[in-house]
Write a structure and sequence with these properties.
The chain is of the alpha+beta class and 235 residues long. It contains 8 helices and 8 strands, in the order αββββααβααβαββαα. α1 packs parallel to α7, α3 packs parallel to α6 and α4 crosses α7. The structure holds zinc ion.
Length: 235
């Protein structure tokens, strides 16, 4: 007999499926470190709960590998492995601080993490960053042991500026989104930008996008997004 997971049905099911899909995308797009370490979470609308991946690896996440938490970080359903238990507050403190954040993704994406280890912010010099809302430098939150009160406090100090991504010094990347799809796009764009900026350093370094053009690039992207997909007129 197959064991039913806690999230096979009900209001959390749709978010659970999205979380699993996002974990698969992170693996498929090759934005993780070789350990496939990471954790991601999303709000379950109208419940005051969030779903979080329960293991520290994002390899083959299933409906049985999720934990339902309240915004104070208390476990409501499911389980948490010790390594994930350590970082619960890194997620829930952000949801308490930023009502507009609907999803959070943490990875050790190698190129972004190189910037985190160097203590160097990633400038918004790559248009793909601007198009996902990263219009200022991705800041570096000071180091403290993962998930500790000091670490979370350093992250919140950067997050309160309204940024969609924060580098965790000596550790990795934390990306936020209005929903999982947005958080995924931010994670991918930051890792892409980090990689390409490092490539550009060999040929003179990345040049900034003029600040007035950043606003124009963002406005143009949202104008076309609102207009939606274009199809030929029906005859
Ligand atoms: Zn980590």
């Amino acid at each position: 007999m197959t064991q039913r997971s806690r999230f096979d049905s009900g209001p959390t099911h749709e978010i659970a499926v999205q979380l699993i899909g996002a974990a698969e995308q992170l693996v498929a797009r090759d934005v993780l470190s070789p350990s496939l370490h990471g954790n991601l979470s999303a709000r379950v609308p109208e419940t005051g709960h969030v779903l979080l991946t329960a293991h520290s690896s994002l390899d083959r996440v299933t409906l049985r590998d999720l934990a339902l938490l309240d915004l104070q970080g208390r476990l409501v359903e499911g389980f948490l492995d010790p390594a994930t238990h350590e970082i619960v507050e890194m997620h829930t403190a952000i949801y308490r601080q930023r009502p507009e954040v609907g999803a959070i993704i943490h990875t050790h994406s190698p190129h972004a993490t190189a910037f985190a280890l160097a203590g160097r912010p990633i400038e918004p010099c790559y248009e793909a960053l601007v198009r996902v809302g990263v219009t200022t430098a991705v800041p570096v939150a000071g180091y403290a042991p993962r998930g500790s009160e000091a670490s979370v406090s350093n992250i919140l100090a950067q997050s309160e500026k309204g940024v969609w991504a924060v580098l965790l010094a000596n550790h990795g990347l934390l990306a936020f989104g209005r929903d999982l799809s947005h958080a995924l796009r931010v994670t991918i764009a930051v890792e892409e930008a980090a990689r390409i900026v490092l490539l550009a350093e060999a040929i003179g370094g990345a040049r900034p996008i003029p600040s007035e053009m950043i606003a124009q690039a963002e406005a143009r992207a949202s104008l076309f997004a609102r207009a939606g997909t274009v199809s030929p007129p029906r005859t």
